[in-house]
Structure formats: C-alpha cells, structure tokens
Amino acid sequence: MKSKFRAMAAVAVIAIAASACGSSGSSTTTTTAASGGSTTSTSAPAKFLGCMVTDTGGIDDRSFNASSWQGMQEAQAAEPSKITVKYLQSTTQSDYVPNINTFESQHCGIIVTVGFLMGTATQNAAKANANQKFGIVDYTYSPAISNIDALVFNTVQDGFLGGYLAAGMSKTHVVATFGGLKIPTVTIYMDGFWDGVQYYDTKHPGTKTTVLGWNEQTQTGSFTGDFTNQTKGETLTQAFISEHADIIFPVAGNVGLGAAKAVQTADAAGQDVNMEWVDTDGCISAPQYCKYFITSVEKGIQTAVKTAVVSAANGTFKGGNYIGTLANGGVTLAPFHDFASKVPASLNSELAQVKQGIINGSIPTPTKSPV
Asked: What separation in angstroms does the CA of 292 have from each of 43, 63, 68, 102?
C-alpha cells in the first residue's frame, strides 16, 4: 500500500483533572509541585523552567494533552531541585502563537507544544529564536530542526493490533471508528485499525468484518470536527450501534467520552457493545468506563516528553525527530483489565504473532514512518 501522511498522532495517564484547576483560559499558568498538585510558587524560581502549551482539548482531555502534562510532571518529579514546570492552555487555535510568545518572554528552558495543529507556530518560533529549545508532540519536520525535539508515534502499528483485536472480539462482525479532525495524527490510527481488521479476515477464511466510519483505501470516513464536543461523539456512536457495530474506536480525545456514554447506554438497554480507547490507558484516565474498554491503543507520550525536558535541563538536548514504535515501546496496546479473562487465549496468541510480524517487517502496515 502506498505511503501517505507522516506518522504522528497522539500510554497510561493518571486522571489529572485536579491539576487543571484555575487554567480554563489561555492567559492562565500553573506551576506544579513534584507531588502532582497545583500550587502557586512563592519561592525563588528553579534553575530550569519547563513550559507546556496545550492544544484546545485542554489539560484534562484524558488524551494527548493530559499525558503530555503528566510527562512534564514526571520530569519535575525526577529532579525536583532542578526542574519546575508550568503550562498555558489554548482555548482556540488563535492562542497558540501568543502562548508560545508568553513563554519565550519568561525564558523557559524548553517550551513543549502539544498537537499536530501547532506544527507551524512552533517551527516559526524556533526559527526566529535559535537559542530557545522546543519540544512538540505529534509533529515532525523534514529536514529536522536542531532546536526542536519532535516527538511522533507510528500509531498505525498499534492501531493495526487494535483492529485485529476488535475483529476477533466482535460478535456482529461490524466494528466502527471515527475521528475528531481529519488530520494525519488521527487518520493514522484509523488506517491501522482498518487494516488490522482486514488482516484478521484474511487469517480467518469465511469471516467478513465491516468497518464503519473509515476506509483506509479511499481515505474517507466520519469526523466530529473537534476534540471537545462529547455530544457529537455520543450521537455518532449511537448511529454506529444502530448499524450493529458492537466495538467502537474513537480517535477524538475528549469526544471519546461521548462515545463511552453511548456504549454505556446501549449496555443498560441490554446490548453487548464495547470499545477501545486511544492514546492513554482508558481504565486509568476514564475509569468510570473501564468495564467497556477491551484495551487502549496507546502511545508513550509522557515518557517522550519527560525525556525531552530532562535532557534539556541537563544539557543533553539534541533536537531532531523521535519516532515511537512497537519495537522501542513507543506505541503499544494497554492491558485488557476487565477483559483479561474474556479475550480468548488463541486470539491473544495471534496478537503476539502479529506484533512480532510488524516489528520484523513480515507484516506490512499501510502508513510508513515519517523519516
């Protein structure tokens, strides 16, 4: 299959809504103690300040913003005498540049921006200020930029595993996926999911699984238009369920909580519908819906962000492009949690074989790594 968009999109993350308090606007900053709580610093500033600009989903999106912030907190926890961290929240895309400019004026040791949509704003700032170090989640540059640590994840790989698992667990042989926005960091997950379903069917002659919401070959599908409107996610999921989908895979940040609500409602009505979460381990980030999460298709954002901040603080920052894969642990499937006894041993064994095949190249995935 042909290569297309760069592989980037948006691992376990704790529920950190508490650390979002007082940060609903783009002008608000939060300094976070090593314990993970939100505090106002009255002491002398630390020698190194790590700063993060969120995307519009916000710090408690239970997805890529939340896991990026956890990575910032983990960097501070690793060296609390040296590193302190804070963030500015973007409520609209027009906040990206002002928030980056604000942090530049505060002499942050590194400015981490979160999300594909901030790629251009981050690049322009980095080129205008060659001495300022940046990190960005879910964007990569070609050629690489020396003062930007670009953190991307080849989520087509674990998306493929998620699709294979969904096809194997579906009783109706109808599954569904949808995105928040039609951008590469979203559609790469959906590409992998779609192709994983197709691969399952080739390995199980006589099985025909329908995928609603996305077609990897035509690059057409269903999107809610943002990462925040849970009602849209609920409505779209209800439509999929009415078409007999019994496993849903939302790639839409907070919108996915609407999908989970629809699944919960279907369960209450006696329908056997479940789902897979995205970016983080949903049983940790949205535990109220854990009973419906077969697994989560994760990427190791927090570890990558932590590494970027700590390296900048310790003078080992190199910039360039980091790519998370199944081979290096940068992407993975989360534990099955409540489904541990429900996933057949034979299917679990097949997943392990498929994972190894992707790693060694014997099973091709449709979307290639960006570099």
From this structure: 45, 17, 25, 41
Q: Where in the chain is the domain with CATH 3.40.50.2300?
A: 17-154+301-324, 156-298+332-360
Place of tokens 């900053």: 29
* Contact (Cβ atoms closer than 8 angstroms) between residue 72 and residue 85: yes
Residue 21: helix, strand or coil by DSSP? coil
Q: Output the CA torsion sign for 144, 153, 228, 250.
A: positive
Residue 230 CB partners (closer than 8 Å, separation 6+):
254, 255, 257, 258, 261
* CATH tag, 17-154+301-324: 3.40.50.2300
Residue given tokens 């310790």 in the structure block: 314
Exposed/middle/buried for residue 210 (C-beta within 10 Å: 0-12, 13-18, 19+): middle
**Distance between CA 40 and CA 33 in Å, rounded?**
9
Query: Each residue's pLDDT tens digit in the chain (371 positions)?
Result: 434 333 333 333 333 333 333 333 333 344 443 333 333 334 455 589 999 999 988 888 888 899 999 999 999 999 999 999 999 999 999 999 999 999 999 999 999 999 999 999 999 999 999 999 999 999 999 999 999 999 999 999 999 999 999 999 999 999 999 999 999 999 999 999 999 999 999 999 999 999 999 999 999 999 999 999 999 999 999 999 999 999 999 999 999 999 999 999 999 999 999 999 999 999 999 999 999 999 999 999 999 999 999 999 999 999 999 999 999 999 999 999 999 999 999 999 999 999 999 999 999 987 654 43
Q: What is 156-298+332-360's CATH number, 1.20.120.140, 3.40.50.1820, 3.40.50.2300, 2.40.30.20?
A: 3.40.50.2300
